[in-house]
Each structure stands twice: as structure tokens, then as C-alpha cells.
Amino acid sequence: MKIILACLLSVVSFAQQVNATTSFDVDSFGQLTGINGIDMLGGRWDVDFLDGTAISIWGSNLEFDFTSKSEASVASNSLLTLFNTNPYAQWSDTPANIRGINSSSAQIWTPYAVGSFGTIVEAEIFVNYGAPRTDKLSSFWFGIQEDMSVNGENVFAVWTSVSAVPIPATVLFMGSALLSLLGFSRKPRDS
Fold this sequence. Notes:
With 191 residues, the protein is of the alpha+beta class. It has helices at residues 2-19, 54-58, 69-83, 89-93, 167-185; strands at residues 23-26, 32-40, 43-50, 106-115, 120-128, 135-143, 154-164. It has one domain. It contains 5 helices and 7 strands. The protein has a 7-stranded mixed beta sheet.
């Protein structure tokens, strides 16, 4: 029985390690262009950092990755958390090493809704002021035609859902299999 419980606990421990796995994309200039495998909102997400206007990135229909302030807040908070841990802190300390940023501070915008007569976009923002690091979250809006590449301090976070996180189902499956083996091993034996 101890062996079965140890196996079950190791499966749960493995599941937690897999959920915490992220990787970063860096271009040939050493700039952070995106982060892959962020666990949030019941799934795994990738994010890319892009310049331009909302229309040039999401099209004229502005079909954003998130449709509510709460979802966009979770995404921005995930960036805040990542940029305060190694190895991502190197880009938090020097925001100019993030694609689209050429300043000592950065604003990474996650838009979620169009408001005010279709000319304003509402967004959650992760704001980073570089070293010494002073990060915060904020809510703001910007014009639909505003070009983020103009001032070198703003960049869009373009999120892509890559999968639902299937780990809990795997843990349940493995756990039920191990418990079945436990039941099988406790079956009365004929003498």
C-alpha cells in the first residue's frame, strides 16, 4: 500500500511541475519576443509582444483574445508574476530588452473590449519601470488607431490559447488505476 501511495503522490508532484513550465522566445538581438506555456484561466497560453495598431494586429473586427476585464486582469497579473521571477527578471530589470520597447519603462497592454463609439479600446496593463523594479497593474484605454510603436514604451500582449490543462484528468486516471490495484491486492486469498 505504501508503494501505491508513493506512486500516486509522485504523479501529483509531476503534474504540479508540468503546470509550472514556461519558456521564453528570444530573437537574435536578445530581445524577449514572447513567453510560452503560461498556465491561467484553466488552460495553457502563449503570449507574443507586438507593436502596431489594434486593427493591424486583431483586424477590423477587433476580436481580442479576452472579452472581459477579469480575464485580461488575470493575463496581466500572470505577466507581473512572471517578470518578478527568474529568469524573466532580467527583462523586467531592463525593459528595453522586450520587443517593441526601447525605454527604461514598459507598458504591456492586454485589450479586452471596444467602447466609446467604437473608437476607444479598454485594456489591462502591466507597467514595468525597470531597475530598481517597480511593477504594477492598471486599467486604461487607448484610441483604436493608436500606434504602439511610436513612443517605444508600449507594446501589445497578444495571447493565444494553446490547450486546456489536462493534468488533473491524468492524475485522476492514474489515481483510480492505482487504487484499483490496491483493491485487487487486498482481495481475500483462498487457502
